[in-house]
Structure formats: structure tokens, C-alpha cells
Amino acid sequence: MTHVLKPKERVSKELVEKFKELPAATVYEAAGQLGMIDPAIRPVYPEAKVCGPALTVFCHVGDNLMIHKAVSIAQPGDVLVVSIRNDTRSGAWGEILTTAAVQRGVAGLVIDGAVRDSEATQERGFPVFSRALAVGATVKKSLGLINHEISFGDEVVRPGDLIVGDRDGLVVVPKERAETVYRASVDREEKEAKLMEKLTAGSTTLELLGLEKTLSELGLVEE
Amino acid sequence: MTHVLKPKERVSKELVEKFKELPAATVYEAAGQLGMIDPAIRPVYPEAKVCGPALTVFCHVGDNLMIHKAVSIAQPGDVLVVSIRNDTRSGAWGEILTTAAVQRGVAGLVIDGAVRDSEATQERGFPVFSRALAVGATVKKSLGLINHEISFGDEVVRPGDLIVGDRDGLVVVPKERAETVYRASVDREEKEAKLMEKLTAGSTTLELLGLEKTLSELGLVEE
Amino acid sequence: MTHVLKPKERVSKELVEKFKELPAATVYEAAGQLGMIDPAIRPVYPEAKVCGPALTVFCHVGDNLMIHKAVSIAQPGDVLVVSIRNDTRSGAWGEILTTAAVQRGVAGLVIDGAVRDSEATQERGFPVFSRALAVGATVKKSLGLINHEISFGDEVVRPGDLIVGDRDGLVVVPKERAETVYRASVDREEKEAKLMEKLTAGSTTLELLGLEKTLSELGLVEE
Amino acid sequence: MTHVLKPKERVSKELVEKFKELPAATVYEAAGQLGMIDPAIRPVYPEAKVCGPALTVFCHVGDNLMIHKAVSIAQPGDVLVVSIRNDTRSGAWGEILTTAAVQRGVAGLVIDGAVRDSEATQERGFPVFSRALAVGATVKKSLGLINHEISFGDEVVRPGDLIVGDRDGLVVVPKERAETVYRASVDREEKEAKLMEKLTAGSTTLELLGLEKTLSELGLVEE
Amino acid sequence: MTHVLKPKERVSKELVEKFKELPAATVYEAAGQLGMIDPAIRPVYPEAKVCGPALTVFCHVGDNLMIHKAVSIAQPGDVLVVSIRNDTRSGAWGEILTTAAVQRGVAGLVIDGAVRDSEATQERGFPVFSRALAVGATVKKSLGLINHEISFGDEVVRPGDLIVGDRDGLVVVPKERAETVYRASVDREEKEAKLMEKLTAGSTTLELLGLEKTLSELGLVEE
Amino acid sequence: MTHVLKPKERVSKELVEKFKELPAATVYEAAGQLGMIDPAIRPVYPEAKVCGPALTVFCHVGDNLMIHKAVSIAQPGDVLVVSIRNDTRSGAWGEILTTAAVQRGVAGLVIDGAVRDSEATQERGFPVFSRALAVGATVKKSLGLINHEISFGDEVVRPGDLIVGDRDGLVVVPKERAETVYRASVDREEKEAKLMEKLTAGSTTLELLGLEKTLSELGLVEE
């Protein structure tokens, strides 16, 4: 088995820049309600936001050897998406890796495990999304996979897919669909802005979303 | 079955205003240690506080249709108490509902599920207490109940009951007991203030709470 | 059984002062990757940090009588380490105990249960680490143990052992090893500072940590 | 506050006998998909089944005093429904209470906490549904409530309401609705039996439940 | 988007028959320690075992419409692998679906949610692996995906991949690797049988697995 | 640091034999309600019972090297008490270790992680208590500790302490207290047997345990 694959097509830089304006929840809706990463993977500090193509990493429990390898081959703008099999006791990322990642222009880290040195990470403005914080250490003794398709937070993530995350959560968008999802997101944002204007003017969501008809068809009984 | 009941008696506005000065923990103690909502339902941002009569909503998993209906009939000052059966994958409340709710003067949202657009919610100062944040979407396809008595966060909540919440957690006070609980809360706050003066002056809680006698009766053995 | 033992040897004040400069994650590594307290025990506010010798307390579920006793005999600088058997429904510590503890110079509270009055606690700058916040009350009816060796957060904690905690988590260092661990921590901090300089200058962690050799020995296959 | 209320109307014995033939899942459906107790409350042994009117008990965490009181006033056929606030460390029920309950003709125990002496309980054929097993002890020091309306396992349970449980889970049926729910359950069982005959003969659930129309209306696209 | 894809290549029937002799743990090891489904997905009764090609289904939370569709197109021997997004409150599979599935020769069900009618399922000998049992109902109102690649229990599952499960857990083997994994499994079983003979004769695992050398190289210090 | 310490004093074989007659819950009560291991550590099959002196093992997450070492030095009757830091993904014990352990007369395994080959383990009648079952593998690359004092399942366990476990859970008894606890257990069993006779004859637990007085002193109000 080849452990480290070459990155292939990835979502374009121009598109990534455009997605940075969009909330994750909007992107999720625009993607047809597909691609929600497990909401238990949260930003380490509330302001953390992440947006970029996935560089996928698959590690053995308690072992971050492949993360070091991945940082060394990351391209500017990459988002590291690291499966460490939900191990929340091992702080698999800390200040040293943050320093190396910032130096290389890595756009952020998303991990289904734990991290440490969270204060330093926040000070450097490096966005991290994790299941937990933990002082626990890792060993560097086992191989894993890089740039393979992986299951991450209940979704399939392929290298080059777009990762978008903010306080509400994380979304993965398949690279082939990114352009379409972007346009649908912008449409949605515009529609929502108009909706909110009307709501502020006193309309109800029942009227604006056609829900009165739904309620009536379902046979709503009111006192 | 009648899905939507008329609101009946609710805790008075004057009393609600008075309760706004009180910490939730004090109210809980003054209520005879009854009414603690499951502590896993947390404020979405630390400063969020909520106080007002409950407008209860019972939804199907993954479906927020009845929340839209509830917002449309809410009265100013109401606190939406939404049971969506502990579904933490569906962001059942977002910026559109916040906008509609703020417009109608809704006092806050308390939900045993997930919400999204949390940043916008915080910016508008609308208090939300939830189990989780999630980008997940909901459908609008199933009826539920409004203004029925419900089980919420391990407590019975009836429409019109008082909901009080802050960083420490949420408490429900039956409307009939609210006046009594208010007076007991004020008494308790006064007693605690005096206790704290004495503690600052050097007394121990053992002396002030009569715990030396308890320890002695229980047969404490010290080296 | 003797419920309350006298504190015996504890880690020295001078050493405690020195440890205050160190991150918990560094201390954990320097201690040979031993002593990690369950990461689910978290600071109540992000800035909370704790450092000092343990005064151990073992309580019955839902009962904080022994905490009151412990505060009354605490010495300045002590860190209360309270096992209440993972009870996350009872707010076993609140503003009254904070007031008493601050007056006596207690250095902080670490508890495997819940606390309340968290806002007041933060305002007074008293560091608290807990599993949860809860408005729930406790009774004061059962004896427990003070200054006994206890199991706490998956680690053995003996009275006088050093407790170090920050946003990343909590670590216990046996008092006999504290001096050694301090020196190893300082070494580690220095080495890490140098590493980070080199990383900022463009080196990779593979080069600096000798991981290229590891990868090669393990038979890494790259595309 | 009156701690112990008199039992008022309860679901009739005749109806209870009839419900004993019905699976809990059928009753839940027939009840309009209302009344599901938290599925984490499970039978202690797979064959345990329970059916009867609720005698409700509300206890302090770690304290089973009110359970003893409840057993002493239980009537034959009663099902004890005990809220101990999700405390899963205290074995709040054991062989002594089983012995007392069997002697009085109690029909079973349903508790949102833990029990012990599970082997003896199974040998006596006494049905118990709990969140956990635990050797942990309880104290007998605090009052609670008996025959009050309580929140239990995410549902409101009132004294006299019908409790039905088997391996699939527990359902509460309001006493006023029990007759109606029974008839709907029998209808449902009959319809399902016919459905299953047709399925065995080769029909699909799509045909029998009219789902082909649903799929087509929703716009299903097949390759 | 095409909701229902045609099944493409699947692991051969001959190979499936051979895998039925093998424990899941052996298959996992032989697969290079890849493919472990989340261990929280457990057999509904201890004797349940499953082996066959995956027919993948992706459902909306609380909605089992697509499961009905999937059963209607299943081929004999297929294992239904159903993602319902970890919804453990909705009993998404019951006796009716079991009856339909058995009639069509479906080999089993694997679901990251809940099922009901578990007793009937066991009586029919139909193997089910789920996260939970629940009486909860589902609606039939939303489309999902069939025979798409999905993330299931922390692993990627593609239609036609081999699913192997027993009391120890579930494993997914990519169809292209199944032949190789089978041979490695048989080798492993043979080696283990020999190991166990030697162990029964008194050898230690240290000797047989070469672990004395490992311990010595790592610098083991013994008293 | 010395990784492997010599076993020192252990609870005597005669006493172990006597304890085999006692339920874990009785032992826990007789021990003064101290020593309850986390109830989430459960027997792998319901009939599993364990009783014997602890041989303690502390492993790195995902690494079972020290378990192999421990089995090789175990004495007949020892109970392996293995902390693998709550790692429930790695099946750290399987049929090979069971075979080796049975050959050496090991009395059972207690682990705060996962095991595999559970069917073979049950067939050989070897008692195992674990948090989970998992097919997951472990590496054999890191040293740990043997016969050190450890924290296990929220309790301190020292080598030679008595471990008693059955379906209700696990208890650790310090070796120095074992004789006293045994006598108190026998007393308790006798008292309970008499209590149960009286209960069967119609007495209530209120009468027999003096709880009527307690209720009256606490001010019970009955309708």
C-alpha cells in the first residue's frame, strides 16, 4: 500500500477566497444538506474560522508521526484534516506543529482528537477545530495514510475537497461540486437577507416560507 | 388532539422583571431544590441570560415546523422552550428565526437540541440555551404540540411557567409558586451577603452554617 | 477509620512559584508522560490557571460537607482536589465557598463534579476546574475523607502532590519528583524555543526531530 | 408541600391485563408516537417486561429513602417509576427491596438510575428497567415526592398512567387515553399481521405502504 | 443528483461464503488494521453474525423512507448498511422490514441508529447491528441516497464492499482487497492456532512474539 | 524509574476462596462504601465473576506490550488490572492472551479499555471485565508500569489488593482491610437473609430499617 499519495486536483484558490465570506451553515444548506462534519468537533477558540482544500491524514491512535510528515509536504492554504480515530486523550498537535504549519502557510487544522498548547495556538491566530484539549502526549512510531480518501466526523473527505468551518461547525464540499455550491450559497445569502428585511418589517416566517399551507395540509388543530 | 393550545395564565410581567436580578442558582435553592433543567443545556455565549414565561413547543426529531408556528404566535417577553427530543445534529434555530423572534419581542430560546448562526445570534444579543451547535438542517413536514405541558431537560415545564437561566444553568419555577420563590430568593440573597461579609472577616463556613455540630454528630475522626 | 489526616510533606512554596511559569503540557511531558488528569475536567473560564500542593477531599455523591471542613483547615496556597464521584448534577461549590477560600488564601479548586456561581468565581479571579456547571444543590449529611490518597480524574493524587493546570488540562506531579520534573520542564522549554526558532527559519519537524529516519525504517511508501 | 399524595385514578386492571399482550413499540405507535421513555433506560435482563399503573417517586441524588416509603404503600400491580436524577453510581434498588416488592405484588421497577443484586432480581422474575448496574450504596436522609407528576426519561409521567415496557423500550400512556390507545394498538397489530402475510408472499413495503407514490412525488432519481 | 445508483461490482458470493468462517477481529488484522466500524454499533443479540456485500443507504434523521426503497431492490445476500446520522431515538427498522428483508434473502442490517421489534428479529434469526434499541417511530417524507459511497461508523463504505461482523464488532473490507484479505486471514488463523498450541504447552507470548527483544531494546527496568 | 516491581504482600489465598461466595455489592457495603470501580467497566458475558489479588498494569493508549509482560510473570490466581487510559478502540486482549493466561492460572482480566475474541473468551470460561468490545489492534512499542499503584476506574488499586466482581460491578478492597471486610460481609449477608425472611412474612423495610423514625424527623407530609 502506498502510504503517501500525491495531491491531485484541489478546489481552486479563487474559489477558496470566495468561500471565506460564507457561513458554514449556508454552505451546508447550499450543498443540499450534505457534508456536515460531526458537530462535536469544535473550534478551540470561538473566533477560529477555516476554509481551504483538505490535506487528509490518517493516524494510529496515540501516534502523530504522520502529522509531522503531512506538515512537511503541505502547500500554502491547505487545511489538515486528521483522523486519529477519535482519540481524545492524546494532544496530537501543539505549539511546535503550529509554528511549522504557520511557517508553511497551512490554513488550519481539523482533527477528530485532541490538541494542546491551545493558548499559543490562539495567540498565533492559527485556526484549530478538535474534539478536545488534552496535555497528553503522542508517540511517533506507526505509519498511517496521507492524501487518501478518509472517513472523518461521519463524512467522506477526499484530498482536495473544500473544508469550511466556523463556530457553527464544519462542512466538507466535494471539489467537483464547489463551484455550484458557491453559487447556491450566494443565492441563499441574498434570499435570506431579503427574508430578514421582511421579518424585521413584521412578516412571519409562516407567510414568507409558505408554512401556513403546510400546517393546514397536515391538519393542524388550534384551540 | 388539539396541537396548539391557547396560552393560559402566565407568570406576571412585574414578577419577571424582579426575577431578572436573581442568579439561577439562588432561584433553584429558593424553590426548594426543584426545577433544575439538565445542565447539559448551556448558553451559546457566556453572557446569555434568560428570564420569562415559557411558551412550550414539542417537535419531531429533525423537524422545526412547530418552532415557526410558535414564533408567529409568541407574545413579547415569552421564552420559547423547545423539545426536539435531544436531536443535536439538526440546527433547528438560526438567524432567520432570531430575526423574527427579536422583531416580536421574544425573550429567548431554550432548546434540548442544536442551533446555528450562533455568531449572528450573539451579535443581536438574543439569548439562546442549547445542547449543541450544528450546521445541520431541519425539514418542515411534521406537526407537534404548542402550549402543552412537556418534559424538558428532566423537568416538567407547563406553558406560562417561569424560566430563569444564566451561565450556571436553567431553572423552571411553576407559575403558582413564583411569588413565593421570589421572596425566598431575596431572603436567601440577603442571608448570603451577610454570610460573605462574615467569611471575609475570617469566620469559617463550619461556624456560620452549624456544620461543626453535624461533623461531631456524624462521628468525625481527625488525626 | 480516621477521616481527616494531617497534611504531611508537601511540595515546597519555592518550587510552586517556579512551576507557575510553566504550561501544563510541558510539565506533563517532563514528568515522563505520567499524571494527566481526565481532560473532561476543564477550567470554568479560559484564563483560569492553577498551581499548588493538593489538599485532597473525598465526598459522597451530592454531599459537600467535607468540602466545608477542608476549606476550614486549608493552608494558603493549597489547591483543593475534590472527588465527588463524578456527580455533575450537584453544584458542590459556589460563591460562599469561594469567599471563604479566597479569605484563607486557597490557590484554587479542582473537582470531578459541578460548581455554580461561576460568574462570581470568575470575577474574584479564583481558578476553578470542574466537569460541569450546575445550579443543583448538595446536602451536608455524610462524612468523607480529607488528606487521604485518592483516585482523581484517572490518576492517583496524594496530599501534598503538585497540581498544575491551564486551558490544556491538569497534571499531578508526585511531590518527590517535583524538583526533577521542574528541571526537565525548563530543559524542555528551552529546547522547544530553539526548535521553534529553527522552524520559523524554515526547517521541518521531520529534520529536527529525526523523524525521517523513523519513517524510512518503518518502510514509508510515497507516490 | 405535601410529599406523599394519595393515588388517584389509575388505569384499570382489566385494561392492564389486555395491554400485557402488546409490544411496547406497537403501543407507542398507537399512542400517536407520544410517550417514549429515554431508550437508555433498559431492561436488566432481556426477558424483563413490565405493564401497569405508575406509582411515581422523586428522590435526591444518592438517596433512596422515598423508594422504601413507596414500596410500603404500593398496591398490587403498581409499577414504581423512580426519578433519582440520572444518578448511575448509586445502586438504589437491591435484593431487599425486590423481596419487599414481590411480597406486596409490585409489578416492576423503572428507574433513571442504577440498581444492584441484579442476579437475584432476575432469579425472582421481578422486572427492572434501569440506566445502569452499580454496586454503589445510597443514604436514607432526604425527603422527596411520591405520587406527584414527574419528568421521567424525557416524558411526563403522572401517578396512575400506564407504563408498558419490553426489550425495545418503555412507553407511558396517559390514563385517560389508555382505552383508545389499546383499541388502536389492536388495530395496528392486525394490520401488521396482514402486512406481514403479504410481505411473506412477495409484496414490497413500497407497494403495501404506498411509498412508491411518495418517492415519485419527492422526485426520486434512479440510475 | 441521482438518488439511487445501480449496484456495480460486488464481492463474489464464493468469497463471502469463505469469509463466513472467519472472526471479524482476524479479518481486521489481516486487512492491515483498516476498516474498523465504530465499536458502539453492536449486535442486537449476542449470536448475531453478518457477512456479505454492502448495499449502502443514507437517510435523513428520523426518516426511513429510503430503507424501504433499499429493501425493495436488495439482492439475496446483501447487507444493508444504513446511515441515519446516528439518530438513536427513532426505531428505523422493525418486524415489517425484517419480514420483507427475510423474504428477499437480505443477509442482515447494519445501522448507525436504532431498531425495534428486537425480539421478533432475533426469533427470525435475522442479524441486526445497531447503536440502540428504541420504540421511536420514523416518518417517510425525505429522499436520501442508495448505493452511494458513504461514511459509516468512522469508515468509508462503498456499495459492494464486504461487511463482516460478530460479537467483537464490524469490519468493512474494500471489494478489491477482499481476496487478499481472505488469504491473509487464513494464514493468520493458522499461525494463531499454532501459537495457541505452544502457549498451552507452556511458552509465553514474550518468547513467541519476540517481545523480549522489544522490551530489552526499550530499556525495561525490573526490580 | 523501575517499570516492573516485584509483587509484595497480597491478600491470602484462603481469604480469596472465602470471598468467592460473596456478591460484589455486599463486599462494597461491608468495606464502608469504598472501592467501587467505575460501573461502566462490565463483564463481557453475564456469568463472568472474578475474585483475586490485583496484578496492576499501566499501558500507553493503543499499546498492549506490558500486558504480555504481565501475563508472563503472573502467579496463579492473580487478577490482571490493566489501565490503558480508557482506550475503547483497541482490542487489547484476545484469544492468544486468554490462552496464555489460562495456562498460567490467571484468575481473570479487568481492563478500562476494550477486548476482542469475546466468544472464545466466554467458551474458555475466562472472566473478563471491560469498557467495550472492539476488533481494533494494538501495537507493542511502548513501556508502561507493572505492579505499581495505579488509578483504575476512579479508585486507587495497589498490587495485591483484592478485586471482587460480578454482574453488579467491581470492587477493590485494600489488602490490609480484606480480613475485616470479609467478616463484615458475612455479618451483612446474615442480617440481610433475616431481613428477607421478615419481608417475605409481610414486614416493611420502613419498620425493619427504622425508616419511619427518619421520615418523621425529616417532617414528611402525607395527604
Task: Walk me through this protein's architecture.
Six copies of one chain form a homohexamer. With 223 residues, chain A is α/β, with parallel strands linked by helices. The first copy, chain A, has two domains: 13-176, 3-Layer(bba) Sandwich (Glucose Oxidase, domain 1), CATH 3.50.30; 184-217, no CATH class. Helix content of chain A is 33%, strand content 20%. Chain A contains eight helices and twelve strands. In chain A, strands 1, 2, 3, 4, 6, 8, 11 and 12 form an eight-stranded mixed beta sheet that branches. Chain A has a two-stranded parallel sheet with strand order 5-7. A two-stranded antiparallel ribbon of chain A has the order 9-10. In chain A, helix 2 packs across helix 6 (178-200). The radius of gyration of chain A is 20 Å and the shape is elongated. The mean pLDDT of chain A is 96. Chains in contact: A-B, A-C, A-E, A-F, B-C, B-D, B-E, C-D, C-F, D-E, D-F, E-F. The interface between A and B is large, with 37 and 37 residues.
